[in-house]
Amino acid sequence: MVPGGLLVAAVWAEPERLHRDFGAAGFTIKHIKEQEVDVMKAVTVAELIAWTRAFCLARLLADLPEESQQAWETDPVEASKPLRKDGYVRLGGVSGIVVPMAAPRRTNVEALPA
């Protein structure tokens, strides 16, 4: 990246951590905008269960008998009812859209040829 260049990133982290981590990498944060995003969106109960298994609980449920796995499925279905809006169950989060600027490069004046 060129000195003074801009980078845009979408991340999930607290603003304090963004300032710390980007600062440690030599960037100055010019702007942060928080934006709500859908991490998961499902129309049917089957889609919700498939997502939950794929990204959360597949290994934990794998050793349980089929009957226990099916009994488990009622919990997320019940918990998701208040999240249903406009025909979708949405699990969301807040993403930080970050615009950091690369710090200008410093030159060692003494090392430059005369």
Task: From the structure above, extract its key features.
four-stranded antiparallel beta sheet; single chain; 4 helices; 37% helix; alpha+beta; 114 residues
Helix-strand blueprint:
Layout: E1 9-11, H1 15-24, E2 27-42, H2 45-62, H3 66-72, H4 74-80, E3 84-85, E4 88-102
Antiparallel strand pairs: 1-4, 2-4, 3-4
Outline:
By secondary structure, the chain is of the alpha+beta class. The chain has helices at residues 15-24, 45-62, 66-72, 74-80; strands at 9-11, 27-42, 84-85, 88-102.
Fold and architecture overview:
- The protein is built from four helices and four strands; from the N terminus they run βαβαααββ.
- The protein has one domain.
- With 114 residues, the chain is an alpha+beta fold.
- The two termini are 28 Å apart.
Radius of gyration: 23 Å
Quick one: how many beta strands? 4
Structural class: alpha+beta
| Average of per-residue pLDDT values | 82
Total count of domains:
1
The percentage helix is 25-40%
Any low-confidence stretches, pLDDT <50, length ≥5? none
Oligomer: single chain
Basic shape: elongated
Q: Span between N and C termini?
A: 28 Å
H/E element string?
Answer: EHEHHHEE
Query: What is the makeup of the main sheet?
Result: 4 strands, antiparallel
Beta-strand percentage range: 25-35%
Total helices: the number is 4
